[in-house]
Amino acid sequence: MAGTGGRTPRERYRAQVRDEAKRLAWEQIAAAGPSALSLNALARRLGMTGPALYRYFAGRDALLAELIRDACRDLTATLRAGAAAGAGPGGLAEALRAWALAHPQRYFLLYGTPVPGREAPESTRRVTGEITAVLLDACGAAGPPDAPGGSPAALRRALAFWTRLHGVLSLELAGHFTGMGFDPAELYGAETASLPGEEAGRGAGISGDRVPLGGL
Amino acid sequence: MAGTGGRTPRERYRAQVRDEAKRLAWEQIAAAGPSALSLNALARRLGMTGPALYRYFAGRDALLAELIRDACRDLTATLRAGAAAGAGPGGLAEALRAWALAHPQRYFLLYGTPVPGREAPESTRRVTGEITAVLLDACGAAGPPDAPGGSPAALRRALAFWTRLHGVLSLELAGHFTGMGFDPAELYGAETASLPGEEAGRGAGISGDRVPLGGL
DNA sequence: GAAGGAGAGTGATAGCCTCTAACCAACGAG
DNA sequence: CTCGTTGGTTAGAGGCTATCACTCTCCTTC
């Protein structure tokens, strides 16, 4: 959300309404999914009629695209903050998990079911690229220093890191673990620790390898 | 699809129309996503008017639920066939990947973004349970034989197997690997081979461990 | 301070959707 | 042959996206 940083009263009012609309839109999405996002209902909750919202957003798709872009920025900022604070792969993984648990719908809007026709716009692609870049950087930097800055091995390691995190997270958020009687956090922690550098017989791994397996 | 196994002509006709409707529904979903599934458009393509379809399906949600159930059954049958043919975890993983690549929309309907309000009905939950059971069985059976039939360690191993497969698959199907210049199949293969029993310094793993890492 | 213009909001409307109700035609069992 | 079941129709209520023309109200400019 861009906040109310406008200069003229009109700009401030406009930004305020836009922010409130987006806030309510997230509520609606959280309540019934992205497909249930309705400009009409949104406008009603804002105290105006349907067509008025078209002064603020070009249409339903534009609003959704903006929400996705905001979510991207939010996650990027979160991860960048973690990285800037010196968090390693494990720290970033925890930050990612915390963010996803706090905003499941945001996470699914970024990494969930894609809409076949709808290609992600350039701006979004760039931001998601940044997100993976942060993860890859942290992971490559934490691994054994082979050609610092992107050896194939580092890329492979980072990709495995990313996909494992996403595998646990997305299944957990989708509720596929409910009733299985175990703690997803523990699995996530094990997956987080399992990776950077330990495969291919490189040894016990770098970042701890706590309770390697079977510790349930 | 139940096929045309009815006895009376009416039943056969009914089954035929239902199957054709579901086929077209899958086409529509593949073209523009599940949210674009429209009973009206479907009926038009079937050569009838909208309300006529309500003789065959109780409503849009019922049709979608049936499609999901069919997808579940299909995947279950595929995996069961693989398991019956003696495929180990690696074989099942390959079967899963082949199925998902052939029917991405089916995969996402099962494991993609969940609709917040909509709880999966009992029938579906039972079938998805079977799917995971097949994977868990194969994985537990292939691991080192500790308390055959579901030790905590086997469960943990199987869960990691499942989540790793899903992590690579879902990101690949969603197109998040496009333009990264690497082969998802290779990553998937490495993840498939990385798991059953090799962690915690148990050795080189059971099912091959081909090009363990860094081989990109 | 008055005039003009930009911007916010409204009602009307077209066209799509889901789903119900009432009605009609045709098939098949008795 | 008769008549109930079944498949299909049109009509219609209500919701949605989106556009258009219009009003009103501020803010700017003279």
From TrEMBL, chains A, B:
Residue ranges: DNA binding: 38-57
Q: Supply the SUPFAM superfamilies for this chain.
A: Homeodomain-like (SSF46689), Tetracyclin repressor-like, C-terminal domain (SSF48498)
UniProt cross-references to Pfam families, sorted A to Z: TetR_C_33 (PF13305), TetR_N (PF00440)
The HTH tetR-type domain covers which part of the protein?
15-75
Q: Which PROSITE patterns match?
A: HTH_TETR_2
Q: Which UniProt keywords apply?
A: DNA-binding, Transcription, Transcription regulation
Signal peptide location? none
In terms of PANTHER family, this protein maps to: HTH-TYPE TRANSCRIPTIONAL REGULATOR RUTR, HTH-TYPE TRANSCRIPTIONAL REGULATOR RV1816
Record-given protein name: TetR/AcrR family transcriptional regulator
What's the source species for this entry?
Streptomyces pyxinicus
